[in-house]
Structure formats: structure tokens, C-alpha cells
Amino acid sequence: MSSNLINPVLALPDLHLGPDWAVHSTGAPTTVSSHAARTFAVTPVRGGPAALVRVHRVAHHPLSACYPYGAHDLVLGLALAEEGSRGRLLASRLLRAVVPALFAADPRCRRVVAAPDESDTVMQGVWEEGGFSRVTEADLGDASVVLFTVEPPDLAGMSTALDDMPH
Hints:
By secondary structure, this protein is α+β, with helices and mostly antiparallel strands. The protein has helices at 3-6, 84-105, 121-129, 153-156, and strands at 21-25, 30-32, 35-44, 51-57, 74-80, 112-114, 133-139, 144-150. This is Acetyltransferase. GO terms for molecular function: N-acyltransferase activity.
């Protein structure tokens, strides 16, 4: 039996953000520390600072040890070219465009997660402003992080109350 059948690496989605954003892939999917990743340089079309967006599958990322992930769940990383309020505003707008694009590119994705460093309160605020919810803290091999998640609207709005479950 092929090892690809046991632990397949699902193709990472392209990032299509619409007319307000210029998106350039920094190359083909790469393997960084044995984790498949895609990196995109993103800038607002009307001008402004750039950002790098990195996308991983949770299954092939250290965060896989932090929660019971789905095979199509994604880890999102964000690096800003500009700090301060202008960079935060860009990041918030960008995340609100990136997340729906990722869910549209992979309809089987049930969660996008982010894990800023536990001491980086600025980036934690960026993730919250971008629509992510703080879930918990986690210790990875080399860092302590805060786990943030966002789910597709149809999944996030689904009731989990026992009385609402079909019988």
C-alpha cells in the first residue's frame, strides 16, 4: 500500500480575492520543515502595504497536535510589511477577504486556524479584528501560541444543543 493513501497531502487552494487585491503566489507549494505550504504576496489594488499570507493543511503542521482537526482544515499565517494602525487595518480587511476565499476554494474545509505567539498581543488583536475567535493556548515544540479559529457561516451558525439534533 502506498504511503500516499495513508497520509495524503491534499492540494492547497489558490487564493482568489477579487478586484480589490493583487495576489501573487511566491511559487509552487513548498515543503518547509516537512510541512506543505503555499505563500502569497498580497497588496491592495489602490495602494498600501503588502502582506504575506501562508497557507498550510493542519494535518501537516505542528498545530495538528492541538485539536481534533478535519482533513481539509487550514492553518493561516500572516506577515505584515507595515506595523501600527495602518498595518492592522490592512490585516483586518485582508483576513475578511482571505477566509471566505479559502472556504470557497475548498468547500470541505470546516475550520481555518491561526496561532500567533502567546506574547504577541498585537497579532492576537489582528486575528480577532479579522473575524477569528480565540479558543485556547497551546504549547508547540518551540513556542507557546494562542489558537484562533473561524468556521464557514453555515457551520458556525449550526446549533449543537441536544434538543436541536435530529432524532
